[in-house]
Amino acid sequence: MAFIGEGKRARVIDIFGGRGIVRKLMEMGLSPGSEVLVLKNSLGPMIIEVRGVKLALGRGLASRVLVEPIG
């Protein structure tokens, strides 16, 4: 997900990692098919909005989420 620019939308395609990582991200609302709005993508954690909730994801977790840009 790290390549999506600020203000851009994307759709979650898949999540890679062990069961614990996948479960954690899915509990946060990041499941295949969900739409994500990138609010901040610079130094430090990535700030996104998913299902009306703002989340801060570290680069390690964000790299586990495969997305496709929307629009």
Describe this structure in words.
The protein has one domain (9-69): Ferrous iron transport protein A (FeoA) (SH3 type barrels, Roll), CATH 2.30.30.90. It has helices at residues 19-27, 59-62, and strands at 9-15, 35-40, 46-50, 53-57, 65-69. It is of the alpha+beta class. The radius of gyration is 11 Å and the shape is globular.
Based on secondary structure, the structural category is alpha+beta
Number of distinct helices:
2
In the sheet with the most strands, the strands line up as 4-3-2-1-5
In the CATH classification, which architecture applies? Answer: Roll
CATH topology: SH3 type barrels
Radius of gyration: 11 Å
Q: Pick out the low-confidence regions.
A: none
The first-to-last residue Cα distance is 16 Å
> What coarse outline follows from CA principal-axis ratios?
globular
What are the defining features of this structure?
alpha+beta; SH3 type barrels; 2 helices; globular
Quick structural gist:
The protein has 71 residues and is an alpha+beta fold. It has helices spanning 19-27, 59-62; strands at residues 9-15, 35-40, 46-50, 53-57, 65-69. A five-stranded antiparallel beta sheet has the order 4-3-2-1-5.
Explain the layout of strands and helices.
Blueprint: E1 9-15, H1 19-27, E2 35-40, E3 46-50, E4 53-57, H2 59-62, E5 65-69
Antiparallel strand pairs: 1-2, 1-5, 2-3, 3-4
